[in-house]
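Methods: example folding runs. The two proteins below were folded one after another, and each record is reproduced exactly as written to the output file, sequence line first and structure-token line second.
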Amino acid sequence: MSGIRTGIGYDIHPLETGRRLVLGGEVIPFSMGLDGWSDADVLVHAIIDSLLGAAAMGDIGQHFPAGKPEYKDISSLILLKEIISKVSAKGFTIVNIDATVIAEKPVLKDYIMRMRENLSRTMGIDVEQVSVKASTANRVAEIGNGEAIAAIAVSTVEGES
């Protein structure tokens, strides 16, 4: 089947002290980081799931199961690069990535461009094909209370499967 395909990805991780905060491959100065097996980069994880969804290739947990020693504290950009190879091998190219990080704190506006650059470089696409936005949860639930950060992403790919 050829043509344009779209996938959606979502990820959420709790914040905890003693970890560094990494979003879009960028280390963000903050008093807490995201808890997870890898670097817990929710933005990259959401993008990975959206790409896998567009290519009908499962989800991030199927490709990189938590608990495997080789993925402990690994940079999610390394995982993204591997997924790009798999999606490309299946005959797809990325048209566009649109993602939103949902966090009450820290304020992310000063890091958005660097996130876009990290992501575009890792995926081998132009920075203009990568949109990253930041939003809050307006003090609602875990994200709004500063207990977690989430991200949602939509990927558009084209090609033949």
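Second run, written to the same file directly after the first:
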Amino acid sequence: MATLRRKRPVTRKIMKKAVLQKHASIKSKVPRKPRRNKAATISISPQASVIAGEMAVKESNYFHSRIWRVPYEMPQELPAQYGRDMLTVLVRDPRWIFCFWEVTGGTIENFKRQLGGEFEKAKMVLRAYDVSGINFTGSNANRFFDVSINKYANNWYIETGAPDTSWCVDLGLILTDGSFITILRSNIVRMPSEGASDITDEEWMIPDWMFARLYGMGFGLGRSSPVGKAWQERMKQVLSSGIPGSGSMASPVKQARKARKFWMMVDCELIVYGATEPDARVTVHGKPVKLRPDGSFTFRYVLPDGIQIIPVKAVSSDGIEERSITPVVERNTR
């Protein structure tokens, strides 16, 4: 007689286990695909690559420190001394010069050994020499004066009170017997003129057409003319040469003065000055300029509206060396 088995009740736990076993058997039969790098399978269009490149450039403009990694350096002050003996003079204005110097410890010790106890008793001064128009040798100055300073100073202002002159300065000691010992000697500087120049007969760097224009502004050739004989002679040549604009002798300024007594005229001129070796050759716009005995030179330049380029060239006497400086000046009359 057959035995009947009682069926085991199916629970949720048994069903879940059966499902997992079936899923595992199916998964094991399917061959597993090898993994690939996701980054390698991504394709980028040319337009997207261009946009990405532009974004990288823009980011580098704002965050360049992350690219270059330049370390930040704290600003450093200039050294108090440079370890060399020197005395330099600069022009401040037509009446004042500025001196600054450095005397090394070795130089001071040499003077102390030479002078002994006199060094401490000596008075330190700046001796200013007027060397205008001469080739200064140290003993042929036109005049000089002393300015007392303390031994710890390294710069000083000196009032010369003499515009349009040349100066050289010595830093030295005045001993108890009144003798002067030079420690350092400076460069030579030329003081600028103060006010308008009263010289009217030197050659002007001016084109011929400008003479006719200035004549039309009221610069006549009569006894009351404010210009010198050289100007008047050249003006006569311009007027007689038939330059356009110079044929009419009726000045609009003079006509206005006949109608009313009130009037005004304003114009400008430029004074250019410099210096070089006394035996050098200096030209301005290719025209030679006469040098003074000390190598300095000055010339006046007409200054019309606009930009004026003034090339100045100096050539040594042997023709080996040359220097060129070109001031550029602009005038705008309103």
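Comment on the second run: The chain has a mean pLDDT of 75.
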